Fold:
Amino acid sequence: MVLKLNFKGLIAPVFTPFSRQTGDVNISIIKPYAQYLINSGVNGVLVNGTVGEGVCMSVQERKTVLEAWLEVLKGTSLHVMVHIGGPCLRDVQDLARHAESKGVSSLLCIPDLFHRPSNVEEAITFLSLVSEAAPKTPLLYYHIPASTGVHLDMAELLKVAERKVPTMSGIKFTHNNMDEASQCLEVNSENLSVLLGHDQLISTGFFVGFESLIATTLNMFAPLIIEIHQGVKDSKINLVRAKQKQLTTYVNTIIKYGKWVPAMKEAMLIVTGLDMGAARQPQGVVTPEQVKQLKADLSSLNVKK
Structure:
């Protein structure tokens, strides 16, 4: 009962661009943003995920943003994954149906954030109801316990889900427990996909056996991550170690100035020149003085547009 994902590669979880003046969705920048990502060498995009602030948007906004990405990526080979979790179950199902009707490549879904599942069976019940709404599209569970507060055995979830959720195709694993990650990679590895979602553990993940990655820093530092990936393939351990240290230094420098999404959006403008606007509240604000200091810090690290 598995719907195979048939994807291996690097997925950029894209920012949702907002106007700095009004805070409204700014879809006009999506076309140049998409071209920039294509040129950077990524293999896919994740729309409306954590970085895309899906849970901070209305259902209609999420549909509008997805449609804009699908339109600009029409005719390309990029995988388009969309996160549909966050609101009430009926809205999740509505987003799933909409995404399937528009021809997305795959769906990603966090568990319910209020009625959090306390065991694997409850999570499976939720995923089954989501699956019914989009019976032809691969569905992945989004494991990000630091944000959801849901700490379940992911290997066990995969084992049960492959039997009980018709469209189950895998998980996005955003956690630092590499032992658990290794166990997940062993569950029906021919048909289930496990995608790493931890920027500071990219090299470790590749060594452990991950073949696919969803990382915020692919928006800004894709060539560096591609070097890490290739270095692992070529067993160039010293190069991989140096490049991962470089990437981690960039990440740690950026997140000194705010929570993950607000700080990363400001770094995106500094590094690429593409203005994603400020993150929506209540995620916090990066002040103009902090932006100025972040720019100076990145310049000292020779990070330039």
Q: What stands out?
A: The longest helix spans residues 237-254. The chain is about 45% helix and 10% strand. Strands lie at 10-13, 44-47, 79-83, 106-109, 139-143, 168-173, 193-196, 213-214. The longest strand covers residues 168-173.
